[in-house]
């Protein structure tokens, strides 16, 4: 039985993708084979030596010590795109909420409970409504920072709302570029995007290089009265810079899915409790994708959507499969193949791929892998782990 250690609330639909006859799922296991998590902040000291993989049912992996996992030969998976539509729809809400006095107007109407006369209510409503007036999105400039799975949907939505969309993504993949509508104007740098946009929405990962991407030095590039939307991660925006910009009316509104103590109690904030991916559809999709990727890896060694291992898949025809992770250094393949040759073992098929410091191999052999062969492979300097599948 494979043991899956689950953290956070994971969709039941997704969990049901684990074949029940071969998988046990629990929130405590002393020697789990894999972990399935959402936003749980995972520390290296919690990772048992038995752990073979970690799947994040979601996009961001900044809650997982990915570099540590790579050093220890553990692939980390995520589920790109599975919650992109859910985030896009919440960004739509934020665009509207930061444009019109909707939240305050609802509070105002809630406060009218003591009035029982319709005429009196009508007259008060008409008298006060000018306090909640706002502006329209149509015709405004919408700057989207990060044009991956979420940013591309958000940018497309902006176009459909009649906005003029400008985008900035210095790391844009060719595949992501193909997905973008050609009406999106590409900005050469962040200050240019900030200076042209009435609304700016951030859709990029939290990395050491993107921490405080919006900061005290570049916030001055914003247009006066611009709105900033952050549904990526709190740390991407320097909180004190945003507060200063709001105080000086440089920004008129800040909407974020990542509240912080300093942000509370202001009318120029729209704060939400990290609900970007909290829809039934996104939770199901993320969990289904994460579970399928784990099953493929645990049972067949195939890797899809890993953030630290190469993508690799070898069809299971016949023979006995061995999966080997090794350091990406010279002569490893030769040393491994020598182990098979020395024992007169026929290799039927094999795949080898590397990514940065890691190399990963699937080797199908004609005869069952003996414990002696597996130990010999483990004994090669540079081999990080060996599994017989
Ligand atoms: N609020 C939520 O609940 C929620 C849900 C899903 C994702 N997220 C966050 O959104 C982020 C993006 O998700 P995604 O699915 O679009 O990921 P993605 O990998 O598809 O896209 C991220 C894009 O950011 C770009 N990028 C990287 N560094 C950049 C930089 N310095 N400036 C501009 N662009 C840069 C990349 O090139 C990539 O195109 C996630 O990493 C996660 O932190 C939040
Ligand atoms: O799991 C969640 O609720 C949030 C997920 C989101 O932050 C992500 O990065 O995909």
Automatic annotation (TrEMBL):
Pfam families assigned: 2-Hacid_dh, 2-Hacid_dh_C
Catalytic activity: (2R)-3-phosphoglycerate + NAD(+) = 3-phosphooxypyruvate + NADH + H(+); (R)-2-hydroxyglutarate + NAD(+) = 2-oxoglutarate + NADH + H(+)
Domain ACT span(s) in chain numbering: 321-389
Class of this enzyme: oxidoreductase
SUPFAM superfamilies: ACT-like (SSF55021), Formate/glycerate dehydrogenase catalytic domain-like (SSF52283), NAD(P)-binding Rossmann-fold domains (SSF51735)
Origin: domain of life: Bacteria
Protein's pathway: Amino-acid biosynthesis; L-serine biosynthesis; L-serine from 3-phospho-D-glycerate: step 1/3
EC number per UniProt: 1.1.1.399, 1.1.1.95
Gene Ontology terms, MF aspect: NAD binding; phosphoglycerate dehydrogenase activity
Keyword set, alphabetical order: Oxidoreductase
Family named by the database record: Belongs to the D-isomer specific 2-hydroxyacid dehydrogenase family.
Biological role: Catalyzes the reversible oxidation of 3-phospho-D-glycerate to 3-phosphonooxypyruvate, the first step of the phosphorylated L-serine biosynthesis pathway. Also catalyzes the reversible oxidation of 2-hydroxyglutarate to 2-oxoglutarate.
Name of this chain's protein: D-3-phosphoglycerate dehydrogenase
Organism: Vecturithrix granuli
């Amino acid at each position: 039985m494979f043991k899956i250690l689950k953290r956070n609330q994971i969709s039941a639909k997704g969990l049901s993708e684990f074949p029940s006859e071969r998988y046990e799922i629990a929130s405590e296991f002393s020697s789990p084979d894999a972990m399935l998590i959402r936003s749980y902040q995972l520390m290296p000291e919690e990772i048992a030596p038995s752990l073979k993989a970690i799947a994040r049912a979601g996009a961001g992996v900044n809650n997982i010590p990915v570099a540590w996992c790579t050093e220890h030969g553990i692939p980390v998976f995520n589920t790109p795109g599975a919650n992109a539509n859910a985030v896009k729809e919440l960004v739509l809400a934020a665009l509207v909420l930061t444009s019109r006095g909707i939240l305050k107007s609802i509070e105002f109407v809630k406060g009218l409970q003591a009035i029982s006369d319709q005429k009196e209510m009508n007259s008060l409503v008409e008298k006060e409504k000018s306090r909640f007036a706002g502006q329209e999105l149509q015709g405004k400039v919408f700057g989207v920072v990060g044009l991956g799975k979420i940013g591309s949907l958000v940018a497309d939505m902006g176009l459909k709302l009649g906005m003029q969309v400008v985008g900035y993504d210095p790391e844009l993949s060719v595949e992501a570029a193909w997905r973008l509508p050609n009406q999106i104007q590409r900005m050469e740098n962040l200050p240019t995007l900030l200076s042209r946009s009435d609304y700016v929405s951030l859709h990029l990962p939290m990395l050491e290089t993107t921490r405080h991407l919006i900061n005290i030095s570049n916030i001055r590039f914003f247009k006066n009265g611009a709105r900033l939307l952050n549904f990526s991660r709190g740390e991407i925006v320097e909180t004190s810079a945003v507060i200063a910009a709001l105080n000086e009316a440089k920004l008129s509104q800040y909407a974020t899915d990542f509240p912080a103590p300093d942000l509370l109690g202001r009318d120029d904030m729209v704060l939400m409790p990290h609900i970007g991916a909290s829809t039934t559809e996104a939770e199901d999709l993320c969990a289904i994708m994460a579970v399928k990727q784990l099953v493929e890896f645990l049972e067949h060694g195939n890797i899809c959507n890993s953030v630290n291992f190469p993508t690799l898949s070898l069809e299971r025809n016949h023979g006995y499969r061995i999966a080997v992770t090794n350091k990406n250094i010279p002569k490893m393949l030769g040393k491994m193949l020598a182990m098979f040759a020395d024992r007169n073992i026929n290799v039927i098929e094999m795949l080898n791929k590397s990514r940065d410091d890691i190399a990963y191999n699937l080797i199908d052999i004609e005869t069952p892998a003996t414990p002696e062969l597996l130990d010999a492979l483990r004994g090669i300097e540079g081999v990080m782990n060996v599994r017989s599948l």
